[in-house]
Known about the structure:
- The protein has helices spanning 56-69, 119-134, 139-147, 158-166, 273-276, 284-295, 326-343, 362-379, 393-401, 415-418, 428-438, 477-493, 530-535, and strands spanning 18-20, 74-81, 87-93, 106-111, 149-153, 205-209, 215-217, 224-226, 237-242, 299-307, 311-314, 383-386, 404-410, 444-445, 448-452, 456-460, 463-464, 498-507, 512-521, 541-547, 551-554, 573-574, 579-582, 588-598, 602-611, 615-624.
- The chain is α+β, with helices and mostly antiparallel strands.
- It folds into three domains: 18-22 and 497-624, Immunoglobulin-like, CATH 2.60.40.10; 56-164 and 263-413 and 473-493, Zn peptidases (Aminopeptidase, 3-Layer(aba) Sandwich), CATH 3.40.630; 180-258 and 434-469, no CATH class.
- α2 crosses α12 (477-493) and α8 packs antiparallel against α12.
Amino acid sequence: xxxxxxxxxxxxxxxxxxxxxxxxxxxxxxxxxxxxxxxxxxxxxxxxxxxxxxxxxxxxxxxxxxxxxxxxxxxxxxxxxxxxxxxxxxxxxxxxxxxxxxxxxxxxxxxxxxxxxxxxxxxxxxxxxxxxxxxxxxxxxxxxxxxxxxxxxxxxxxxxxxxxxxxxxxxxxxxxxxxxxxxxxxxxxxxxxxxxxxxxxxxxxxxxxxxxxxxxxxxxxxxxxxxxxxxxxxxxxxxxxxxxxxxxxxxxxxxxxxxxxxxxxxxxxxxxxxxxxxxxxxxxxxxxxxxxxxxxxxxxxxxxxxxxxxxxxxxxxxxxxxxxxxxxxxxxxxxxxxxxxxxxxxxxxxxxxxxxxxxxxxxxxxxxxxxxxxxxxxxxxxxxxxxxxxxxxxxxxxxxxxxxxxxxxxxxxxxxxxxxxxxxxxxxxxxxxxxxxxxxxxxxxxxxxxxxxxxxxxxxxxxxxxxxxxxxxxxxxxxxxxxxxxxxxxxxxxxxxxxxxxxxxxxxxxxxxxxxxxxxxxxxxxxxxxxxxxxxxxxxxxxxxxxxxxxxxxxxxxxxxxxxxxxxxxxxxxxxxxxxxxxxxxxxxxxxxxxxxxxxxxxxxxxxxxxxxxxxxxxxxxxxxxxx
Length: 628
């Protein structure tokens, strides 16, 4: 049959596209939709104060209550028990009406692997609360919860987390899991811990009068300050250490405190004996987490909330250049600094790092650069940096599981709030001004005399309270948690999405037609990480072609066939079968070309994409000959 063809507009071909939206169709419409930033977004549907720290019993009750109120969106489970028998409770959040959690691409969020870093508990729990309470009101949250799964473990090191929240402790302790350890080699375990000697609910410093001491009381009697003038006649003091007793009678105090190995040096990748002893995953809390993650291959990215320092630490591919001399490193840093200065003329949040990666890791590095650049904008006063590798959770997530990973060092100190002269640090005078102005004096322990059973008359005080430095005063936590939730959600919004894009049809000859189809991923992340490809755990994306009974795919030679031999700008891969496998990087697309033969006057061709992390999409075209 002869077909009349207009080579410019091709009026003989009528293309009808039937497009299915990526992901799942929600069972119920968003009845409480709120589009005004001044409107209600569900905050009081589950009222909770974010201006306090919660104990284990309190935060796990909040988790259970959230699940009860939002059973259509959340499940709660224990991934295992801690050394002291506490459950590590996990919230699994996704719209159950749109599919099973394990069948959707997932984000993992945990907090407080270090016992004293409980602002990580707050940020993780807030993220869960934000997703659940806003689901009915916020179309952005609604879309994410319908499409993806969020696994949220607010407290990882639950024994030490609860101790830090519930009892007097220093800013840095307890940090490790409760593995008994004989620090002083006397055959006893954890017998000389820091203790609240004066029973004021805080652990401060102990001082004793000493004519040879290096400190004196400040003029306002609130601090101990170093003596700089040898002739100063002021009463002198010597710092003994943090509060505690000599429990084992060896003449020392606090020399055998509670805790074992560093839990964020206890993971497999990069493990070393020095800090991760006695062996990788020796700590049951870490092992429970890793076993869950290993069994849930849908986890595409992970967040780990720590403190201190306001850092976005990201797991980056390895540097391919090998060892550099000091001179080479200095030259490379100078080049990066110059490039970054130029980039920041148009984007003050731009990021660039002194790292060259091998081609097989390039997609991961590009994605991570784009993510942390946006992260710097969302978090404002946080600095992105490449994270360490020594048995850390984020390194393990990337190198062992192929998941993109971020360690967030929260808060850290009131530098941005208290730094009066802009030199990037806070001296004692600035700190006291901040405490008196912002906290109205609440964050300081004034020195006072105390009769110690071992030491006699001493002074206790002259330090900040527990929730001032590493963990911020609770009044700051809601704003901090909100920013962190926004960053987590942004990363999820950039999970890959594979779509069928443009489809074009051109007549070849007689009853043959060239069909071009573009598949695209407009998100930042690739459809699978470079690391997962090297681990051989990645699953290729697929394009399949279905046709009406009167259309068949015709075999053509392999390569990149062109309709116009003179046009080499848009190559397309030849398809000889009804299926093609591929992998898309972030912000990437691929074109495929195949030849079809149609019998009769009308037929259809349907394109279907399936991607493990990029979802599914479909598009159908109808081809008609002239006059039909």
